[in-house]
Amino acid sequence: MTNSPLQTLPDAQLAPMQRAYAEAQAAKNLRLAAMFIAFVIALVLSADVTELNPVKLWERRGELLDYFNHLAHLENGAWVISDPVEWFWNLKGWSLLLLETIVMSYVGTLTGAAVAFVLCFVASTNITQNPLTRAAARRAMEILRTVPDLVFALIFVEAFGLGPMAGVLALALHTSGALGKQFFELVENIDPKPMDGILASGGSKLHAIRFAVLPQIIAGLASYTVLRFEINVREASVLGYVGAGGIGFKLLEAIRKFYYSDISAILVMLMLTVFAIEISMSYARAKFLPEPGTTR
């Protein structure tokens, strides 16, 4: 019989440890159960406040399905896919408005991303040492992303009149706040060693940002910006409701007048646009950006 390198404690010493472990595990399970019960209670109360009634949802399911049925049919009752020419009767006009929506989103996203790029370094604890400066940058980004872009659009429509300019400014402001938070979190989670090495060797903070920080976050910056661009394409279609340019006004007009086939045609165009953006941007990221942990 060989001697085992593992030693077993005597029962007199092992029993108190087992009891302590069992008590700790029971306390943990009790906390989890209490959290789950609190979550269920909060969910039920929230459903009551928001009038989320499962019975009503079930009773009105027919109306919901009927609406989608209207979207799938032309005015003459035929399926929309049976007559694409009739379905997309205003393809040229919608395409021009959709192009305006895409350009609004593109300019608004790039402008907002540029502002967020600057603010993210000011708001990061590992870049900016002054707490007041960091707090000011963070509060500014919170205000910008808290105010809905639709409210910004209403303000700019009042100031500059109807047109895409109001939409671009609204998207840019909201985007700068939303992306700014994501960007500075990327900066705060970098590996500090390369930056510390550059600063210790006499480099400036700008040198550290350029050669130590940016290589670590560039892929994340691109991914978040592309995602925001996709979101802004959808948001820009809503901004047209208040006259801020784009296809949103035509979509609102079709909804108000119950032009179901027009609604479905515009929605299909929006979905195809978002799909095309996602596919093309995924290809661009794979082609031009390094994978995490690699260099080029």
How would a crystallographer describe the biggest sheet? none
The secondary-structure element order is HHHHHHHHHHHH
Please report which band the strand proportion falls in: under 5%, 5-15%, 15-25%, 25-35%, 35-45% or over 45%.
under 5%
Number of strands: 0
By CATH reckoning, the class of the domain at 90-288 would read Mainly Alpha
What is the CATH homology-level superfamily of the domain at 90-288? MetI-like
Coarse shape: extended
Round the Cα radius of gyration to an integer and report it.
28 Å
Q: Mean pLDDT, nearest integer?
A: 87
Under the CATH scheme, the architecture of the domain at 90-288 is Orthogonal Bundle
The protein's oligomeric status is: single chain
**Unreliable stretches:** none
CATH structural fold name of the domain at 90-288: MetI-like fold
**Cα distance spanning the termini:** 59 Å
Q: What is the count of DSSP helices, taking H or I runs of 4+ residues? A: 12
Judged by helices, strands and strand pairing, the structural class is mainly alpha
Question: Helical percent range?
Answer: over 70%
